[in-house]
Write a structure and sequence with these properties.
single chain; alpha/beta; Rossmann fold; four-stranded mixed sheet; 8 helices; globular
Length: 204
């Protein structure tokens, strides 16, 4: 896409009642996320961005209660997902952000969808500039080309996209694309929805 107009993007997000901030580096965004969260408990959705920024470790070091299924054994993952939805703050990334201010995501399990739509009353979404797209068609195309196949391989799933980097709209039980959702604006249960944009490539 063309060069990103961050001022216009902030205006689009603000007009939809999101609370956007733009940062030059991931380290600046990390500090901002930690400041927003304070001493609150945090639930985290599956996120390579959060992992790569080592946000969970920083929050744990600060004494925050952190609920993240990526930190626990397989048998404890569902309990961690459930606890994440009752935390004070829900934190994750987004698969794509359109220039008119819509967050687009595709989930396999749906815990992130629940967290962003009807979970904790405060949300922190962090994303890199590589996830900014011009519109909905480009958002879906990006997710099905770049995000889902990579995640399927990371999880060792037996799906066609994991083998070919192409979505076949499969019907397997391992399917990554079970829930597709577009956040046009924060839902009423969410009182503060922060969107932290980094002028670097982050995550998948």
């Amino acid at each position: 896409m063309a060069e990103i107009d961050y001022d216009a993007l902030v205006h689009s997000l603000s007009s939809r009642r999101f609370l956007p901030q733009v940062f030059d580096t991931a380290q600046e965004a990390k500090a901002a996320a930690i400041a927003i969260i304070g001493n609150k408990s945090v639930g985290i959705g599956g996120s390579a961005t959060v992992r790569d920024m080592q946000l969970a470790e920083a929050l744990q070091a600060n004494g925050n209660a952190v609920y993240w299924h990526w930190l626990v054994a397989k048998e404890a993952k569902q309990a961690a997902r459930d606890k994440a939805l009752t935390a004070d703050v829900y934190m994750c990334s987004t698969n794509a952000l359109t220039t008119d201010g819509r967050l687009v995501n595709i989930d396999g399990t749906g815990n992130r969808a629940a967290g962003l739509i009807y979970g904790p009353h405060e949300v922190v979404v962090i994303l890199g500039k590589n996830k900014i797209v011009s519109g909905l068609d480009e958002a879906i195309e990006r997710i099905k080309r770049a995000t889902c196949p990579t995640n399927a391989r990371r999880l060792g799933l037996d799906t066609p996209c994991a083998k070919t980097d192409k979505c076949y709209d499969c019907r397997t039980t391992a399917r990554m694309c079970n829930v597709t959702f577009i956040l046009e604006a924060p839902t009423r249960p969410v009182k503060a929805f922060h969107v932290l944009i980094v002028k670097e490539d982050l995550g998948l």
